[in-house]
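Appendix B. Worked example

We walk through a single record from start to finish. Start with the input: the chain for Regucalcin, Oedothorax gibbosus, length 297.
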Amino acid sequence: MNVTAVSERKSDLGEGPHWDPLIQKLYYVDAFVGDVCRLDPATGLTETVHLDGITTFVIPYRTDPSKLLITLTRQIRKLDFNTGESEVLTELTPADGKDRFNDGKCDNRGRLWTGTLVPSEEEKGHLYRLDPNYTLTQVADKVTLSNGLAWSIDNRKFYYVDSEKKIIHSFDYNLEDGTASNQQVLVNYSERDEFKDLGVPDGMTIDIEGKLWVACYGGSCLLRLDPETRTILHKVDFPCKNVTSCCFGGPHLDILYVTTAKRELPEDEKDSEPLAGAVFAVTGHGTRGQPPVLFVE
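Next comes the structure step. The output line below is what the pipeline stores for this chain.
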């Protein structure tokens, strides 16, 4: 496997990558900076739209991929990347709440699933589904740091990360009505020796063989996991500690694009991690992903 930095820009906290096959570019966010980014991997150049808040994911609309579904702290917005203008679609209640959105992704019908967290507080976050009418429905509670999401190839399983708890959950999933049930622990990093030095699970995607790829924040790696056996199939090492998320892209969806962060690096480690915050491309891994799912309004 080859791991290559493909962006000149280094993010404070790169997150939420989403490949756009129409323009062969990668969208992602620099969360606490408030930037929505669009990378051309062929040139390494990144365009950005800056917003006043925390951005955590970016997903194009199926009807018009130039319009993007994004978060801005406690709001979900529609962003026109070309003009930089955005409109509020919905927001968390009550208005004075401390919770905010984090990672998000669409199921195969184009419904958005996203979670929340309350900084420095345990089990105060929730998992939500956003339907095409922009109604938020709470699906799960007692979440500490909501993160990566993925669905099995047959859409009968939904996988979901709570980073702070170091747990990847699995649910039974009904694609017809968009419901998740029977929540179980798939992998608990704290209870398995092979996971104990790998940081915490963060962003996540799935390949065409149904294997999960999980970014390990603080673990300097990306893991390929078998959800059936709950074992590590491959470990891909990175030249930076904080690996945040991943998605498949490229003309044949066989390139794994991986976001990273330079945030929270101690001063004495910054010189040893000059590529921290870059977007990386992983090739030669022997599989590919499914076409990215767009939001349906």
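Two observations about the output. The CA atoms of residues 204 and 214 lie 5 Å apart. The two ends are 38 Å apart (CA to CA).
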